[in-house]
Design a protein that fits this description.
395 residues; Rossmann fold; 20 strands
Length: 395
């Protein structure tokens, strides 16, 4: 994909994987991007400035206060670049950025950078698992920084574990995907639900399902990148660069949706809402008895999607739902979209083990109210999410 007229700022830190970034620079150059490189002083222990300059066809910067003109380098670099990619990123640099420490040119730029930052860490596996490092990563994720997690394998330090820089193709593709996000949802208020609802039986037991919430979270991330004002109503604890509302049960989810309904332009029900809840919740833990069987009386939960569509009336709000089917995917989905009254219904085939619940990948079929059917072939949930939103945005 062409990156003509795009400027990519690559930050290289002091890790042995620094030499691999030469190939990343080459890929950006081949795609037509203007490439600028900033290194921490220790990065040059692993790759030479001359090599990086020849590949990027630009001066490589290391020192913070050595400007060629009146512009402060860390501000001008932040203004001129469309995206910042830091790879490999050490535990030290990640922690500095997370805590606003700007003691070299790279961290100063990151502090001033207001557009998308992608970080690809590489370090010893014990460093990766360090609680402080993980807390700093969570902090940055909550601010919208995208992390490409390291791979598991043999490490240069002699250990074997998680810490090896992810593939250069993965870093390149993530940057391309980010740079090519459309802004079709700019200014739109998008409300998304995710995760499986929890219907309590007593203080220690509940009824739920296998939904991981990954698809809803991917939709929220993509909607944010497409310019939307996002609210994610979720049963899963997450840190995110958009508004999140934590709920547990179907009733709580419905109440949260009611709060957001009036201002929402688009509502996407990706959550797996339990069809039933326990009629009589026990305030005390139910004790085991001598009986071999126990009967729980269940009552229907509200059909949130159907009620939202009825509540909408003739107002211009787009409502999309999800359905999980183990057989006759399209036929069952056709019945559901007619019954629910939504504009779109995204059908998942849960009989397959390589997609759906807990998987990082998905394959879906999108049905619309006019009878249109569009299949999205297997891809990562982030890719599927973007394609779903593009389809909805074209409505």
């Amino acid at each position: 994909m062409s990156l003509q007229d795009k400027t990519v700022l690559i930050g290289i830190t002091g890790g042995i994987a620094a030499y691999k970034i030469c190939e990343l620079i080459r890929k950006f150059q081949k795609a037509g991007a203007k490439t600028r490189v900033v290194c921490t002083p220790n990065a040059l222990n692993f790759v030479t400035k001359l090599t990086l300059q020849n590949l990027s066809k630009n001066q490589v910067f290391v020192d913070e206060f050595n400007p060629k003109d009146w512009k402060p380098e860390h501000i001008s670099f932040a203004d001129e670049a469309d995206i910042m990619v830091i790879a490999p990123a050490t535990a030290n640099t990640i922690s500095k950025i997370a805590n606003g420490i700007a003691d070299n040119l790279l961290t100063s730029i990151a502090c001033a950078f207001s557009k998308q930052i992608i970080i690809a860490p590489a370090m010893n596996c014990n460093m990766w698992q360090n609680i402080a490092v993980q807390e700093n990563i969570s902090k940055l994720k909550s601010r919208g920084v995208e992390f490409l997690e390291p791979e598991t394998g043999f490490l240069a330090c002699g250990y074997s574990g998680k810490g090896r820089l992810c593939s250069i193709d993965k870093i390149f593709n993530a940057a391309v995907e980010s740079l090519n996000f459309s802004q079709k949802l700019a200014g739109k208020n998008v409300v998304i639900t995710s995760g499986g609802t929890i219907e309590e039986i007593d203080p220690v037991r509940y009824i739920s399902n296998y939904s991981s919430g990954k698809m809803g979270f991917a939709l929220a991330n993509s909607a944010k990148k497409m310019g939307a004002n996002v609210t994610l109503i979720t049963t899963k604890p997450i840190e995110a660069p958009f508004k999140t509302v934590k709920v547990k049960s179907a009733i709580q989810m419905q109440n949260a949706l009611d709060e957001e309904f009036e201002t929402a332009d688009i509502i996407i029900m990706a959550a797996a809402v339990a069809d039933y809840r326990v009629k009589n919740y026990s305030e005390q833990k139910l004790k085991k008895t001598s009986e071999d069987e126990i009967t729980l009386q269940l009552v229907k939960n509200p059909d949130i999607l159907k009620e939202l569509c009825q509540k909408r009336g003739d107002r211009k709000k787009i409502i999309a739902g999800f359905c999980a089917e183990s057989e006759n995917l399209v036929e069952n989905a056709k019945e559901k979209i007619a019954k629910k009254g939504c504009d779109f219904l995204v059908a998942n085939d849960i009989s397959r083990k390589d997609i759906g619940f807990s998987s990082d990948d998905n394959e879906v079929t999108i049905l619309d109210k006019n009878g249109g059917i569009k299949k999205l072939e297997k891809a990562s949930k982030s890719v599927i999410a973007t394609k779903i939103l593009e389809h909805i945005a074209n409505e």
